[in-house]
Amino acid sequence: MPLRKLxxxxxxxxxxxxxxxxxxxAHLRFxxxxxxxxxxxxxxxxxxxxxxxxxGNDNDFVLLGLEAPAGRTVFNAPxxxxxxxxxxxxxxxxxxxxxxxxxxxxxxxxxxxGVFNLPYLHPTEPARLADDSALIYRTPxxxxxxxxxxxxxxxxLLQTSPELKKPAGDSLLTSLRGQLEKLGFAETDYHLAxxxxxxxxxxxxxxxxxxxxxxxxVVLVTGLLWFTFRTWWGVVLPLVVVLGAILWGLxxxxxxxxxxxxxxxxxxxxxxxxxxxxxxxxxxxxxxxLGYGANKKDALITTIKESGFGSGLxxxxxxxxxxxxxxxTIKPIHNFGLFTGISVLLAFVLSFTLLPALLILLRKPQLRxxxxxxxxxxxxxxxxxxxxxxxxxxxxxxxxxxxxxxIFFAMQIRINSALLDDLSDGDPVKQxxxxxxxxxxxxRPFELALQPAPGRSLYDLAVLQQIERTENYxxxxxxLRVAASPVTIIKSVRKALNxxxxxxxxxxxxEAELRRIVNKVKLFRKKPxxxxxxxxxxxxxRLTGRMPDVGSIRADxxxxxxxxxxxxxxxxxxxxxxLTGSANLIDKNNENLTLNMIQGMSIDIVxxxxxxxxxxxxxxxTVVVIVPNLVPIIVVAGVxxxxxxxxxxxxSIIFTIAFGIAVDDTIHFISKLKLTLLQEPTVFRAVxxxxxxxxxxxxxxxxxxxxxxxxxxxxxxxxxxxVGVLIGLTLLFGVVAELTLLxxxxxxxxxxxxxxxxxxxxxxxx
Length: 766
Description:
- This protein is of the alpha+beta class.
- It has four domains: 1-30 and 231-365, Multidrug efflux transporter AcrB transmembrane fold, CATH 1.20.1640; 61-161 and 164-200, 2-Layer Sandwich (TATA-Binding Protein); 380-411 and 588-766, Up-down Bundle (Multidrug efflux transporter AcrB transmembrane fold), CATH 1.20.1640.10; 432-580, no CATH class.
- Helices cover 62% and strands 8% of the residues.
- It contains 26 helices and ten strands.
- It has helices spanning 3-25, 43-55, 77-91, 129-136, 166-182, 195-229, 232-255, 267-274, 276-291, 296-323, 331-351, 354-361, 377-390, 392-410, 428-439, 461-477, 486-497, 511-521, 528-531, 552-569, 582-616, 619-643, 654-676, 683-710, 718-749, 754-760, and strands spanning 61-67, 96-100, 106-111, 114-119, 153-160, 190-194, 444-452, 482-484, 541-547, 575-580.
- The strands form three sheets. It has a four-stranded antiparallel sheet with strand order 2-5-1-6, sandwiched between helices. Strands 8-9-7-10 form a four-stranded antiparallel sheet, sandwiched between helices. Strands 3-4 form a two-stranded antiparallel ribbon.
- The longest helix is centred in the N-terminal third of the chain and has 35 residues, at 195-229.
- The chain starts with a helix and ends in a 6-residue tail after the last helix.
């Protein structure tokens, strides 16, 4: 079949597949699900799912902080009346199950057969507010929860429907903001926090940043392609191929029901820069063959033969770098690795189907007259090659010193994460969350499952005393500022039965008194905060609360101390406990980060070693290939340690991805060297010729990769920012190592004679 006819058929088939992809991409949705970042398959996750089915999710709430007017306390009638109006508005909103507010908080008192709920605040009676404030600051559970210690801010807590999605959540938040404006609260006077707030902000920014970064990447890569090839087809054809791969990858992702989240949002930008490599190597080689006088058909055949092998290997190693992320127990990272790896392979397929078809159908390009040798790529690369050879001791010494310093600083890296890790410290949303950490109990949920020993109930006095001891430890040593448990129920009911006095808020002295209190608990069964603390038969309960978002390092230390306290001070024959909750699950990810990274890097290295062994049948060459690609990884790890960048979910992927991408140019280089060894009489001449042939493509692809990743520094997500900076630095250091260390290591380690190579592989790629 003639090549032109075959090219038309190829375009038709690829166009059909692209149309299917467009259909699926049109149904792609953005999503930020906090629960997706739980460690999949972890026993603690299975336990928490059962736990939350009984007691509800610990993050289905919205905190609304309201600041009093400047120079005033919250105990002034106009302010409290506005708070009360907002509270009643919130109670009427759809998806709001329950509202806890300063103006609806009551002190229950049991008289006869009834319960009278006496309000703590009387907004319509200003004369009583002084006495109200005195009572409030003597009553446990109100300060740090509903009232700030300095009496200049209050919190309204909205319990929402379980796992509320973005559209409904955004509608609720919009309604609240509208009512706040109507009531005269300026934006600086109120603060919102909770899962719904984070969900809304993250998804909106994902959509905005995806458009911005793709636009920046297109502009940047287009400029670099024009600077390199100075022809319209040298710019358009790579863009068509890579955009096609992105379209196919996103289409496949949509067809599998995967949404765009914080990690998969990186796929288009990642592919746009990574997918350029093969097209640049192909076009560079094609233009070189045309420059040697070959016709279009022969130039293309030679290009495919010589570039296909190296491009296939590089696509394999790059995709493996992404596929190894599938070892992660975090679903967004797993999906990102899977679909980006597939997209890399799709880019390779399009590079050797769509690109050759387009080149066949286009007229033979008119090549530019090369500039003088002194300014040509060959001249520049030739001088650089000589400089490296002459100063080889300086190269090795410098590399050794940088490596030693990097290892030292890399050892300073710490694994640490917080609930809003991906937002910068100056972000308004993070500042709102910090407001609750500083002025109130905090935003980080705490959950401790409670189970009485067999034959006991949570309403046994001995069990309650053990729970109270645990509460006291948590408040004193753990910084848990607000806590509620079955003890809260018993103390509250006892207080209600004894006239509502603050001094009566304590556990009973005897089992007989406890039995009378338990019998009265049913009077409070309609209180949602009571129902959420213990199951009706008293066989299971929870100790729940909120605390500041201290970060995973501090949380791990606190949890270690808590577990030690529970082992030493809590009798398992009376009470059994288990730390659980959403924050605990997020912290557990840190335990897997290092392991997942090591697994991913190990798989990458093993695959590259196997490829090099298959190519050269030489263990020495594995050192030649691995060292120049590990050095940049270690250097960037040193940069992280020196700059205090913590290892967390978003930054844990950097090393695996960077190694998979960086080794790409090395694979291209050694595959070309393998071919050149068949033609040159000495290793030195083969290395020099390969250096001149591959150097331009290595530099151009690296510049495009670094430039593409550098666009991510404009992200408002810290994780995305660090991915861009650190992978960009890795690739920058990688190209330096490629052009300095790699040729020296080949000349130093590789001892095979070209004749022996020719005898092993008479024809390569033919």
